[in-house]
# Entry
Amino acid sequence: AQKVTQAQTEISVVEKEDVTLDCVYETRDTTYYLFWYKQPPSGELVFLIRRNSFDEQNEISGRYSWNFQKSTSSFNFTITASQVVDSAVYFCALNTGNQFYFGTGTSLTVIP
Amino acid sequence: ETGVTQTPRHLVMGMTNKKSLKCEQHLGHNAMYWYKQSAKKPLELMFVYSLEERVENNSVPSRFSPECPNSSHLFLHLHTLQPEDSALYLCASSQDKDGSTNEQFFGPGTRLTVL
# Structure
């Protein structure tokens, strides 16, 4: 069965702190894709990153970084030096074939 | 207009009403999706269309009826809904449905309330 678990429902941090959002996935497929999306209060999900199952290289994009570890089936997302504009709900998702599986999301609040 | 647009943004309807949600994408994509987002639950994929043909229907009740007249437009027709159908309905599109090119671009959603 395919599944995405985001155990952290809500996180609050003070501005400029670093924060890591956890994502654990389950799949028996050998080819799959992992995603992170950001959902600000406006509602629309914004694509952040896609990673395929054969590429375990970690990625850094500005203050964002992602740690993909197949050994632990995790795809964690770290925001460095958080800002108030980072406040949103973040979703991790798994794609296998035609199916997308989303986690329940982590609501991040960055306090000024 | 750019990206993915959805209308209406908010909808309140009674259980006996018939209404439709509209989605339009201006990205030249070939695949479109309907999702349901309920509080405290994962996004639920409802329907997938690729090149105007439905490729996935995840056991959605028949009171939800999708329509994809062309690759740029997607509708969700609603009739005799239940209060538990109240949710945010999100439309998305992607270049194709295959994994290598399917980062999805989402619309702002329609907030549906069923009384």
